[in-house]
Design brief:
By secondary structure, the protein is of the alpha/beta class. The protein has a single domain, classed as Vaccinia Virus protein VP39 (Rossmann fold, 3-Layer(aba) Sandwich). It is built from twelve helices and eleven strands. It has a seven-stranded mixed beta sheet. Helix 1 packs across helix 3. The longest helix has 17 residues. It is globular. This is Methyltransferase domain-containing protein. It comes from Candidatus Harrisonbacteria bacterium RIFCSPHIGHO2_02_FULL_42_16.
């Protein structure tokens, strides 16, 4: 049991997590929401990060099966369009390697198969052409199990005859403080850093500065930094403990986009584009403007 789970049980006056998961989802979530501020005061950022590493390591099959994780998002095509052939890129919080592999595997059939995600009733492939550049990509994730899946995915594609112009490399590491990691295989700095629903999605408040300092220290002048996360502008609530469909409590951070922009500027990362996206299930909008995507440039 993680420290976060222990604190939640104490705060809820429960003996086991089974007591929480036995409640209906709405009641369980309401109880979690009621104790979140109290619980977060008793947890360190290290406790939270360690819990989330454990949560993802335990739920790799469920993550892979989740339809929301199947396909790339539109912004990845835009990100690739801002970078030249062979640019060195970091996929921060790469998970099982979906985006890392898309950027590095220059195979039209494979890339087209990953462009089936829909927003507003249109697939990515209906809105964008298949990218024709390949990037040198390093994938970083905190979960060893996720990295193992990513490496197996690369092997599977190679065995299927889909060759990589630049074979991706993967490492296990801290996505909030990564500037000292020995991942710089091709160049001293990254031309782009990509983080889809990873950084600022599971980032305790006190690590925002640390994370953006790492990004700025690791990216070249004029480099592109992309990040997407849950938009906390509407609720004003930063910390969220969510009872997931797997029965595991997950921590989600919900920053105000302006909060991120202000800190980023202190590290010479300037916002160039911002986009809000709805949460959709089977084409039905469940929550408006739930997610935000931001493109920054290092100056």
């Amino acid at each position: 049991m993680t420290k976060l789970e222990e604190i939640v049980l104490i705060s809820l006056k429960l003996q086991s997590l089974n007591e929480l998961t036995s409640l209906n989802r709405k009641e369980a979530q309401e109880r979690l929401d009621s104790i979140t501020p109290q619980a977060m005061e008793l947890l360190t950022s290290k406790d939270v990060v360690s819990h989330m590493q454990n949560a993802y390591s335990l739920t790799v099959p469920e993550y892979l099966a989740n339809p929301h994780n199947q396909y790339i998002i539109d912004e990845l095509i835009e990100f690739m369009g801002l970078l030249p052939e062979g640019a060195f890129v970091l996929d921060l919080g790469c998970g099982p390697g979906r985006d890392t592999i898309f950027m590095s595997c220059k195979n039209n059939d494979f890339r087209l198969s990953q462009m089936k995600g829909e927003t507003n009733g249109k697939k990515t492939a209906d809105k964008y052409s298949i990218p024709q550049n390949a990037l040198r990509v390093a994938g970083l994730d905190q979960s060893p199990e996720m990295i193992t899946k990513a490496e197996l995915a690369v092997q599977f594609l190679e065995n299927s005859g889909k060759q990589f112009v630049y074979k991706p490399i993967f490492s296990v590491g801290d996505m909030h403080n990564f500037s000292s990691l020995n991942m710089i295989t091709y160049k001293p700095l990254f031309s782009g850093i990509w983080s889809c629903a990873a950084l600022f999605t599971h980032t305790p408040l006190e690590l925002l500065d640390v994370a953006l300092h790492s990004v700025s220290s690791s990216i070249s002048q004029d480099g592109i930094f992309f990040v997407s996360y849950t938009n906390g502008q509407a609720t004003g609530i930063y910390d969220k403990l969510l009872l997931s469909s797997t029965g595991i409590i997950k921590y989600f951070s919900q920053p105000n986009p302006k909060q991120i922009t202000d800190i980023a500027e202190r590290y010479n990362l300037y916002l160039e584009k911002e986009k809000f996206n709805d949460f959709e299930v089977n084409g039905v909008i469940k929550k408006k403007n739930l997610f935000v995507s931001q493109f920054f440039r290092k100056k």
